[in-house]
């Protein structure tokens, strides 16, 4: 309701409409009527009862020490009837929706910004993934169509040039066939395996060494074993080392016939017939010096050593 200060203000007006004080007072009347809505609506529902309602309002304001003119009371009642000074929400529609979006543009802007960032990040990640996949595919294509064929051809030619025995040539041809087959089915892994085998084969072919029977003082030159399955038999072995032309000891993977385990060693024992074993033992016991200590020679271009003494095949790595 209006206070005494508002009531004491002069109720002036001009040609354009009621003064601000009168307008505020009329709004107060409407507000009072709205707070007593049940009474006001009941009185207004009956024709000719405006005077009763106006009188009630006058007494209400007078009880608060406020003098309100008939014109103000009439304006307030009329405004209530016309729903003036009452907020009527805009009915739902496209315009209202747009207005609501505009009011909440800050929130929507933040959400939209986050969505845009996520979308940009997703697009960037997808493009990066596609680029990586395309580069990997191109690298694989180049390897299969250019790099591996070129390297395999070069390794095959180098190995063929060093092969000087029939078994060495057959081995080179077999590896070249394996490599070509792998390339034809686009199997890069198998092609790389064949390439590595060709390169190792070429290295084996150029290698030259001697299998020398160990004859140093306090070291055994030969041993024999009694097999568990036949205690009446003996297996004879000569202990050897592979010595390169520069005197360097070489190491090789040797599979032991006693336990089927393969070890890379620089010293192992080769099984030989008893007559070979006895000949070496006699050579060494004659004067304490092993005169003929070359068991085999590995020439360039060959896969296996060429033995100068009879051997039985098989070897052991521990004794």
From TrEMBL:
Entries under Pfam families matching the protein: DUF6384
TM region(s), chain numbering: 111-128
The keyword Transmembrane appears for this protein: yes
Keywords: Membrane, Transmembrane, Transmembrane helix
Name of the protein this chain belongs to: DUF6384 family protein
């Amino acid at each position: 309701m209006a206070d005494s200060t508002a009531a004491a203000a002069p109720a002036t007006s001009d040609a354009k409409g009621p003064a601000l004080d009168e307008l505020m007072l009329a709004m107060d009347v409407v507000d009072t009527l709205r707070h007593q809505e049940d009474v006001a609506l009941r009185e207004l529902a009956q024709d000719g009862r405006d005077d009763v309602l106006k009188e009630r309002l006058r007494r209400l304001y007078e009880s608060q020490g406020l003098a309100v003119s008939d014109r103000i009371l009439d304006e307030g009642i009329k405004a209530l009837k016309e729903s003036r000074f009452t907020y009527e929400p805009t009915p739902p529609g496209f315009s209202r929706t747009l207005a609501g979006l505009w009011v909440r543009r800050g929130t929507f802007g933040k959400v939209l910004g986050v969505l845009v960032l996520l979308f940009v990040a997703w697009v960037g990640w997808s493009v990066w993934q596609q680029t990586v996949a395309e580069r990997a595919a191109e690298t694989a294509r180049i390897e299969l169509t250019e790099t591996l064929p070129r390297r395999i051809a070069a390794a095959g030619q180098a190995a063929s040039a060093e092969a000087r025995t029939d078994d060495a040539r057959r081995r080179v041809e077999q590896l070249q066939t394996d490599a070509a087959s792998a390339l034809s089915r686009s199997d890069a892994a198998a092609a790389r395996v064949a390439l590595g085998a060709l390169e190792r084969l070429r290295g084996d072919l150029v290698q030259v060494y001697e299998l020398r029977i160990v004859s140093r003082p306090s070291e055994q030159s030969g041993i024999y074993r009694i097999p568990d399955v036949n205690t009446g038999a003996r297996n004879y072995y000569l202990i050897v080392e592979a010595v390169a032309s520069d005197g360097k000891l070489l190491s090789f993977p040797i599979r032991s016939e006693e336990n089927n385990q393969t070890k890379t060693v620089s010293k192992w024992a080769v099984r030989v017939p008893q007559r070979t074993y006895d000949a070496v033992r006699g050579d060494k016991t004659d004067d304490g010096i092993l005169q003929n200590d070359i068991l085999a020679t590995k020439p360039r271009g060959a896969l296996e050593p060429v033995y100068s003494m009879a051997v039985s095949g098989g070897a052991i790595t521990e004794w």
